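One record is given unchanged without comment:
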Amino acid sequence: MSASIPPPEPGDVINYIYLFAHEAAAGRDEGVKERPVLVIASDAMGVAVVPITTKGEARSSRSDRIPDPVARAMGLPRAGESHVVVNDVNDFDWRGHDVIDLKTGSFLYGRCPPTYFQKIVRAVQASAALITDRR
């Protein structure tokens, strides 16, 4: 994996081995499987992502069901069953070893439409504010 590959843009959907907070709390230091994730922030050194579930397995009440047309635009394999989890964020140095190329040779699934992306960013910010307020 080359460091010369530019980082994804906010709104990109990439393939990544995501480590959920409940997995880290149980002692894991690596995610269980690769999954699509939505890039919510990035720069030359790092990327922040939120997970997308594609089999209707959202464990969190803080998730948003992705409308079918949006899921298709994002390149997701299962429209109708996908959710963005907004209260669990990973950040990592670019390009981390957990970014996995798809069969296409690229790590990119697709892009999130801007209006839906802004909705998710606001939900992630609200969720972070709730967590901060509880401390």
Observations:
- The chain has three helices and seven strands.
- The longest strand covers residues 34-42.
